[in-house]
Amino acid sequence: MSTKTEFEDSLGAARSFLHAIKMAAESLSDNRENCAFQILAEAADKEIINAQNLVDTLPEKL
Q1: Which domain range does residue 38 map to?
Q2: Residue 34 has pLDDT above 80, yes or no
Q3: 60 DSSP 8-state letter
Q4: pLDDT value at position 62?
Q5: Is residue 10 part of a domain?
Q6: pLDDT in the model for residue 59
Q7: For the chain, what is the domain count?
Q8: 25 within some domain
Q9: DSSP H helices in the chain
Q10: How far, CA to CA in Å, does 47 sit from each of 11, 14, 18, 24, 61?
Q11: Greater confidence, 46 or 3?
């Protein structure tokens, strides 16, 4: 497996963890806490997207 593929797999796993965090946050009774977790998850997701965009520009074999 190439380094690029491993990196893409790691980004996919990070997205899965963020999805789980968002779902868990929805169960919080305090709306402010829920909102805080949602905002943090969205910020992290944007960073993952930025990282994926960078990976997409790399050659297949590193």
Answers
A1: 3-56
A2: yes
A3: S
A4: 66
A5: yes
A6: 86
A7: 1
A8: yes
A9: 3-26, 31-56
A10: 10, 11, 12, 21, 23
A11: 46
